[in-house]
Amino acid sequence: MAKNIGVIGDGNVGGALARGLKRAGHEVRGVGNDAGAVREAAAWAEVVVLAVPFGAIDSVVKMAGEALSGKTVVDVTNAIDGSMNLAVGFTTSGAEELQKKLPKSRVVKAFNTVFAQHMDTGRLGDKPLTAFVASDDATAKATVVGLAREIGFDAVDAGPLKNARLLEPLAYLNIQLGYTLGLGTQIGLKLLHG
Ligand SMILES: NC(=O)c1ccc[n+]([C@@H]2O[C@H](COP(=O)([O-])OP(=O)(O)OC[C@H]3O[C@@H](n4cnc5c(N)ncnc54)[C@H](OP(=O)(O)O)[C@@H]3O)[C@@H](O)[C@H]2O)c1
């Protein structure tokens, strides 16, 4: 069934996910850095995708505030600091910290291990990439697994939100391979199923 999906952040990731979700038949409102628009989109949507820089999370939480209560909030961010290093790990993750800031929302970590270039199709060429989906809320997780499949990903239940501690470094490896080690962004992570 078509869902109302708010995408906060209208950059590479927000634009790509908005395209993929629209193609899948959902109602999508994408908004940029505008407090009123963020609040309205959050209030309208059933599912809200946070596609903003890690450093903008607090600002979005402040802008959207109560409008995110009871909503499924998809955290696509990578907790990377200004020196391009992982900002958190081992004992927490960006997603768990977001859940603490939004205790009434159902935070789901997803799509962060994929380069934006592949997020509108979930594919690299004709091969589906893996979307690892982690959350403590089974219903919210199932919703996001469904959305990821509709975009074209091979969506995999990656367990509780705590596993964002694994998914965020995995994304960092993807970034290292793509940018630091010269493989470029025409790469993607794929779980093989036997
Ligand atoms: N690029 C990738 O391949 C990739 C892959 C996986 C995950 N990610 C993660 O996804 C997130 C977005 O990455 P991106 O590449 O899409 O970055 P981007 O192209 O720089 O886009 C970020 C967007 O967020 C907006 N924004 C900033 N602060 C905001 C706020 N307070 N409220 C609403 N919108 C705000 C920016 O608007 P203004 O420019 O007007 O400030 C911009 O449109 C990051 O956390 C990144 O780590 C990126």
Written account of the structure:
This protein is α/β, with parallel strands linked by helices. α5 (138-151) links the parallel β8 (130-135) and β9 (154-157). The protein has one domain: NAD(P)-binding Rossmann-like Domain (Rossmann fold, 3-Layer(aba) Sandwich). The N and C termini lie far apart (31 Å). 36% of the residues lie in helices and 19% in strands. The model has no long low-confidence stretch (mean pLDDT 96). The strands form two sheets. Strands 2-1-3-4-5-8-9 form a seven-stranded mixed sheet, sandwiched between helices. It has helices spanning 12-23, 35-44, 57-64, 94-101, 138-151, 164-180; strands at 4-8, 27-31, 47-50, 72-75, 106-109, 123-124, 127-128, 130-135, 154-157. The protein has six helices and nine strands, in the order βαβαβαβαββββαβα. The site of NADP nicotinamide-adenine-dinucleotide phosphate has 25 residues, from α1 and α3.
Quickly list its features.
single chain; 194 residues; alpha/beta; Rossmann fold; 7-stranded mixed beta sheet; two-stranded antiparallel ribbon; 6 helices; 36% helix; globular; binds NADP nicotinamide-adenine-dinucleotide phosphate
Please outline what is shown here:
With 194 residues, the protein is α/β, with parallel strands linked by helices.
How many individual β-strands?
Answer: 9
Structural class: alpha/beta
CATH architecture: 3-Layer(aba) Sandwich
Low-confidence stretches: none
Question: Span between N and C termini?
Answer: 31 Å
Number of domains as seen in the coordinates: 1
CATH class label: Alpha Beta
User: Measured on Cα atoms, how large is the radius of gyration?
Assistant: 15 Å
The CATH topology annotation reads as Rossmann fold
Q: What's the rounded overall pLDDT mean? A: 96
The shape is globular
